[in-house]
Amino acid sequence: MIVPEGIKSVEFIEGDGGVGSIKKTNFGESSQIKYTKHKIDALDADNFYCKYTMIESDVKFDKIDCVVESVKFDAAGSGCVCKMTSEYHVKEGCELKEEDIKKGKDKAMGLFKAVEEYLVANPHVCA
């Protein structure tokens, strides 16, 4: 397990992993979030691209309807660069503060760094 205190398990609860599939991520005991569900909106394995929407979580968001994430990996030298964008769809009459977005971004970056460190130390995992 890459980040045992962060992610407990990931499973597809609908579909086979392709477009339209729903993935459930269960987080560790120390996490503020217990689970999230994402629907895969677009997937291009040849170009290392995925777009998905968070459709459910045990945390109730008072300002956000949904978050749409796009992830793309581009070759760079002997490795790659990961480009990620997040579209926050806020509820009518609500406004997100930059500090709220930064908190979420910082948590995501911490997880990405942990995965990166694991993969650099264990390159055979992706071979």
Commentary on this structure:
- The protein is an alpha+beta fold.
- Helices cover 19% and strands 46% of the residues.
- The protein is built from one helix and six strands, in the order ββββββα.
- The chain has a six-stranded antiparallel β-sheet with strand order 1-2-3-4-5-6, with no helix packed on it.
- It is globular.
- The two termini are 17 Å apart.
- The mean pLDDT is 86.
Q: Key features?
A:
single chain, 127 residues, alpha+beta, 6-stranded antiparallel beta sheet, 1 helix
* Largest sheet features: 6 strands, antiparallel
- For the termini, the CA-CA separation is 17 Å
If helices are DSSP runs of H or I spanning 4 or more residues, what is the number of helices?
A: 1
Beta-strand residue percentage:
over 45%
What level of helicity do the residues show?
Answer: 10-25%
Strand segment count: 6
What is the H/E string?
A: EEEEEEH
**Structure classification:** alpha+beta
Overall 3D shape: globular
Give Rg in angstroms: 16 Å
The strand line-up of the biggest sheet is 1-2-3-4-5-6
Poorly predicted parts: none
Instruction: Provide mean pLDDT, rounded.
Output: 86
